């Protein structure tokens, strides 16, 4: 799990310059495409790009050119000084140049948790994603891992044309059908992040998958019969915007169906965000792009990847816990979790419990033979070396009820903030405080405490800073303590009881990085089941069928154990079994998005950069954010009344009938016209209006209020979240 910062400093409308002016930096340069120049003419295209580079008697222009893009953007990446970038702006056809931004990574049981089972539902109707190609833009791949074996996987589709830049000892196969590297010599994964995300999205079935004996079972990706294509755009230091754009460029040319990006860079203008720009080009080619919301929660306005044509994914917990029960000397019991669970630990014995102000500064001699209560960031090896028996790791207030596991070197139990406070109070007040830890292994906690899903504390929240009128994130999915492939063994040295070393090539990690490939896998399944659906239709089906309640039938909670709001949940928690048959979808075309771009204040040049073609906002027109045919509705009421319009397409049966049900936000009355929809045919479209009227006397009780709009038939519920900002 990592937070991310996108470094973009806009100095001029057309330039983003920072750093020392005379030093070479990697720049992304956007230019206009001449009318007589076709993308298929690579030689002429590159010659055109080279014409923008400075002439030098010592350095050739071609040596400065890093990438010559064809599909992801109209432009190139090159090494330039700030002065050269500024002088380039006077050349005909130039649009914008900026230093390439840097992104960071947003870092078994989940298919079952999501209701995916063989011979039924979405897995059955999609044949587990057979033939669909998921493009992973990440840190590469551990190609020799069993998750990427091609047992039972058919050959790649005839149109596929990617090379395989992997070591000869672990080449591509029918599962792993292509690998390109834009950092390093080949696409091998030396980090682990890329292998983990790829196996989560499309990994094959692997039996006896576990980490140090925990979470044991058969692991698989969400779309286990899909193909996986690798675009290595990140290394141990992060991800360059120029490399990400290059990865997109080749992925579009290669013919992927889904693009999965578990990385982000904070809020940015769409016209200077390589993921937003390349993602729009992919959208226009029929590719669904799925991106991480970011790990900068629980703070508001902390999102990455906010463009509405992207699926933005937040993270939630799942109902599998690695149970480690803490029992205090006064009889109180607290359910914690631990990844390392020694079988020989004396769970019945009560040890003295101490709670020092600082575990890292406490005298080592006083820790021997005791269970130590510490903050979750404590120096565990030092406590072990001092002779501590075990540690209880308590969350701080910000982390709350989200338990994120790490592999500790000694017996431990991680507990929530609330439970940690109670344990701390006991340790500070009892005359002779004692505690024990009982390791209970892997437990599926259906309909019991803790509830699942729950929004993870780190999952970035809205509102969107780039487009305040679009509700983001779009969806949440499992992203806490997810087990998936890892390129090297995860091992435990012998513990203090002499237990033997154990190894496994899987790992359990957390982040919106882990949530993202769950949605990418669901997209692959839906693409297989409905090959003619657009990316917008697929996104709509995921959003309008999402769950708003947990496994106990209660509202999904956040890390504070309070009902999560829509800026944390988006449309809710993904429900793949319902998404296959949504009944109605909200479709959006590329032209709709261009009008939206113009409507939110982007210039003609900005729109041209994003669209990849010449755009005049005066000619194409514009729409307000609230008028974009998005599956969710967010309106800012400056007056007493406001109306927005939507259009739905029938993807159910001919003759389907729907009646509207509205949960009005507090302080607002919502009226929908018409209140009933009847569809005579499949693919028939129907429009409706939603009018918001402020209730007399209603004041700004909070910054915003939320509700929902549901189209209900005899078989389906098509739900859209509503957020209304109330201003006095």
TrEMBL record:
Location of this chain's protein in the cell: Secreted
Pfam families assigned to the protein according to its UniProt record, in alphabetical order: fn3_6, Inhibitor_I9, PA, Peptidase_S8
Annotated InterPro entries: PA_domain (IPR003137), Peptidase_S8/S53_dom (IPR000209), Peptidase_S8/S53_dom_sf (IPR036852), Peptidase_S8_Asp-AS (IPR023827), Peptidase_S8_Ser-AS (IPR023828), Peptidase_S8_subtilisin-rel (IPR015500), Peptidases_S8_3 (IPR034197), S8pro/Inhibitor_I9 (IPR010259)
An MF annotation (GO) of this entry: serine-type endopeptidase activity
GO cellular component, one term: extracellular region
Domain Inhibitor I9, residue spans: 27-105
Biological processes, Gene Ontology terms: proteolysis
Active-site residues, record numbering mapped to chain: 138 (charge relay system), 193 (charge relay system), 513 (charge relay system)
Domain Subtilisin-like protease fibronectin type-III, first and last residues per copy: 627-724
Protein name listed in UniProt: Subtilisin-like protease SDD1
UniProt organism field: Dendrobium catenatum
